[in-house]
Amino acid sequence: MEHEPAPAIFLALQESALGHLMRSSPMLYPAAEILHILGFVVLMGSIVALDLRLLGLGRTIAIQPMAQLLLPLSRVGFLLAISMGFLLFSADAAHVVRNPAFQAKLLLIAAALINIAIAHLGPWRRVLLWHGNASGGAKLTGLASLLLWVGAICAGRLIAYF
Ligand code: HEM
Question: Which among 50, 46, 45 is positioned nearest to 64, based on CA atoms?
Fold first, then answer.
């Protein structure tokens, strides 16, 4: 069955010097994949810990100092995962862009980022009023965060099967 050709921008990325480099170097692609995994491991580790605290686990640990430690870590992990993901993508962009698992992953990441914006523009503005127990809104965005990021991981792993 003939597939629609991928949009030109993805073909251009795949045929770019970067795309060729990622395909021709024996070390670069595996190195980028290892750093991609390292990035989302740091992202997920810090986000899951904070979301579970918001949902009521570890009540003896104060939320704000925990967030001050974990949020910068999650940002570093996110930036590493995104930048290395783009390198992996550049090697086979015209093909991967049509992969339903890859498309689902990008949608889940976008939804997770919108959820972060809602959390920080909403419930987190009143963090000083929580007194050790996150507000209902913070719990809700915490639960959504857990489900969306775990979904992104699952979709990411399924890329290889489509
Ligand atoms: C921060 C969000 C991200 C998460 C949590 C994530 C997660 C994953 C996971 C779990 C895998 C499977 C790894 C494996 O089994 O070896 C994967 C593979 C992949 N990711 Fe991501 N990813 C993210 C962002 C991105 C972005 C932004 C892109 C591209 C623009 C991308 C491109 C890829 C590609 C091309 C693969 C397949 C690599 C291969 O099988 O050779 N990822 N990702």
Answer: 50
